[in-house]
């Protein structure tokens, strides 16, 4: 086993995200997670509770500094027309001092809510984009 090297700890500064192929240059944070859907199973004569896997759901949030209205325009038009766009998101986090990265692609994305306005005096404006996804693919691991 290699020796511990604190310089190889993943750090948020090495994180990137692309929304429909456009790099989010003012990305502040990303969180995406998958939750398993399990059902409890009990059988007569056995006091144990077993679990069966039924599938999964995925959700996440992108937070960026607001520099344009690309996401607002896309989602507002979709909500008005009723025709939802195809959205893909790719996240990548690189390991310092190496060429190694962890990359994940998310597809079948829906944006269930969006903010029309949020700002306050003497503060930078951030845009939070909560999303849900139906599929994901781990593209690269460390």
Kindly describe this structure.
The structure is a single chain. With 142 residues, the chain is mainly β. The protein has a single domain, classed as Pnp Oxidase, Chain A (Roll), CATH 2.30.110. The protein is 8% helix and 49% strand. It is built from 1 helix and 7 strands. A 7-stranded antiparallel beta sheet has the order 2-1-5-6-7-4-3, with no helix packed on it. Strand 1 (15-19) and strand 2 form a beta hairpin. The two termini are 15 Å apart.
Topology:
Elements: E1 15-19, E2 22-23, E3 27-41, E4 50-65, H1 70-81, E5 89-94, E6 101-110, E7 126-140
Antiparallel strand pairs: 1-2, 1-5, 3-4, 4-7, 5-6, 6-7
What attributes characterize this protein structure?
142 residues; mainly beta; Pnp Oxidase, Chain A; 7-stranded antiparallel sheet; 1 helix; 8% helix; globular
The CATH class, by name, is Mainly Beta
Q: What is the third-level CATH name, the topology?
A: Pnp Oxidase, Chain A
Q: How would you describe the shape?
A: globular
Helix content: under 10%
Content of β-strand: over 45%
Q: Give the tally of β-strands.
A: 7
Count up the domains.
1
Class per helix and strand makeup? mainly beta
Radius of gyration: 19 Å
Distance between the termini: 15 Å
Please write the string of helix (H) and strand (E) elements: EEEEHEEE
pLDDT < 50 runs, ≥5 residues: none
